[in-house]
Structures are given as C-alpha cells and as structure tokens.
Amino acid sequence: MHSHHSHSAAFCSHAHPGSSPQIMLERATELGFHTYGLSEHVPRQFESELYPEEREEGSTPAKLLAKWQAYLVEARRMQNEYRTKAKGKERAVPNVLVGAETENLCPSTLAWLKAEVLRTPGEEQRAAAVGKGVVDYLVGSVHHAGGFASPCRPARDAGIPIDFDAATFNDALDHFGGQSEEAHLQLCLAYLDAQYSLINELRPEVIGHFDLCRLFRPQTELLKMGAAANSLQLEVSQACTRNISLAASYGALFEINSASCRKGWATPYPAADVLREILRLGGRVCLSDDAHGPTHVAISYDQSRRYLMEMRVETLWHLELDEERNQEEAGLLEDESMRRAREASEKPGEGAPVRFLRGTRAKGVTGWADDPFWARLSALREQGP
C-alpha cells in the first residue's frame, strides 16, 4: 500500500515529539507499504506567517529555510538507504519518495517558492518542472485564507490558518463577514481561488486535502447546483469543478486523506460531493494518511477503504520513481494545447499523461481492495501497540 503525505518532528514543529523520517519509514515497513512519501511543509516567507509553536521555539523564516534544507539532505539519505535495503532483499519500503507540501498564503508566496525554495539551477521554470532535482513530487496544499484581496474583502497582512484550531478558523470566518454560512462560502471561494493559482503555477502531482476549507464546518456544500443554489453557491461549485478539471487534465492524483477521520469527520477528505465530481471528471485518486508521527501511519485506512468501495472506485493510483525516464524528456513535453483541450472536455482526466517532469510516474492498480495489506493491517491493529 502507499501514502504520499507525511511529516515528522525532526522537521515539523507540530508533529509528534521524537518522530523522524527514519521512524516513519520503519513503521511503514512494518505495515507492509510499498510506497511512502516524505512531504515536509515548505518554509514560509514572513515572520507574520509563523505558527505559535514556531514562535515559541524561536524559529524565524531563515531558520525554517535551513530546517527545510536539512530535511532534503536527510530525506535523500533515507531514500538511498531504503533503496539499497530493498535491492538487497531486506524488508524495507522499496519506493520512498522525497516530496514537499506547498503553501499559498499571499500574492508573493508562489514566486518566492519558485525562486528560493524549489529552484533548480539552470532549469527552465516550467510549472511542471518547478523543484525538479530538489524533490520528486509536490503535494499541492493550501492551509490559509485571507491573504489575498477579493471583491468583498481586502487582504490581511498574513493569511489566517484554517486548520489550526476552531478559534483561529472562526477568526478567518470573521474576516469574511462573520459566522454565517455566507461568510464560510466566501472563505471557501477564496481558498479555492488560492488553490487554483497553486495548481496552475506548480502543477503538483498530488492534490492535498482538497476541501480542507470545511474542516470545522463539514456540513457546508461545495457543489450545490440547480434552482436551489444561490449565486454564491453556484460560484463556489464552479470553482470546485474548475480546479478539479485543471488538475485532472495533466494527470494529478487527488489524495484520499484519512486525517479528517481522526479529526471527527465521517469520511476522509474530500467529502462525497467533491469525490463524486472528481470521479465524474475522470480524476485519479490515491491514498494519504497525512501522518505526523508513527502512530498515524495508515491511521483510519480502514475507513478510507470502505469509503472508496462505497464510491465504487475501481482504480487506485500511486506515484513511483520513473527510473526509465528519457533524460531528454522529449516524450514528457506534451503540447499545452492538448492539455487545454482535455481540460475543456467533459472528462478532463481521460487520456491524461502518467509521467511527470519532476521524475515520477503514476501507476493505477485495480483489485486494490483485496490487497493482502488490509488483512495485515487489521491483524496488527488487533495486536495493539
């Protein structure tokens, strides 16, 4: 089995104390994963964007950048170590991926990431190649709202976290006009606009927790159409479809992220309305646990399995290193007009590429629900810690 999204305390201040990439991979090995992605948060640009725990430990943007660079060194070391172990027939996750989870907090974020964090010297900065040679893939995530001006609201000095805690989320709602459903829809629309810019400018291989904007209000519908929908609801629905169509058109994987289940949701991210739209548009789905410590590895995966079976998902996708990639990359440079034609079609994901410029390829697996992994996971859960 696989996960494309993980963090550890060695490089993430809000992860479980004592955790590290090595400890995460040891747990993934124990559970029988064939693919595990390390995906630390990219650093943030400004002091105003630091989280409370980062301020308490004396972090600065410069220190976060140094920590990020140390993460890249350690992640590559673990990738090489596990590759060697697997080739030597030792028990180890054979496909370790080095990734990054993105942000888009304010108008300067993406340009700064491209110039300072994910820049590859000498590389043409095509969207799909940003970070090539630095990371294997990107998890395209947004965690803030309010950092961009909108027709109804000016921009804040710093984006407001929408997944930190309920009180901070309510502060974000207040920025959009109060605690009403309309304010939440305005927040969701701003979130989706920031997500669209990120998808367009970075072309992440994995789309992270698509509907994080409703973590604390899961009852809000993001795809309400027809006569019952007002103009704001229609605008939010159209933004969802727009974002899904763009990502599906270049072959992105939408993560089924089980972290929401440990936070009180009945399903993983994204909820059923969004997942139905992803499937309708031919989008590909993958698994993620969004682990912040070893006890989170594969957490709530039984719920993810049940959810995907209920939604009749036949093919589950994951990334793997593209070892046979043509170094000239001639075969990877699809004409943009072809992608745009898919994006405008009824099923944008149909016929999308499976190879990515950063160096991975997507592999689809049918019969995933009968994988021996699930029985092993159940047995280990029964054994307890």
Automatic annotation (TrEMBL):
InterPro entries: Histidinol_P_phosphatase_HisJ, PHP_dom, Pol/histidinol_Pase-like
Annotated region (Disordered), positions in chain: 336-356
GO aspect biological process, one term: L-histidine biosynthetic process
GO CC field: cytoplasm
Keywords linked to the UniProt accession: Amino-acid biosynthesis, Histidine biosynthesis, Hydrolase
EC numbers: 3.1.3.15
Pfam families linked to this entry: PHP
Ranges for domain PHP: 4-258
Family (UniProt): Belongs to the PHP hydrolase family. HisK subfamily.
Annotated protein name in UniProt: Histidinol-phosphatase
Organism annotation: Jaminaea rosea
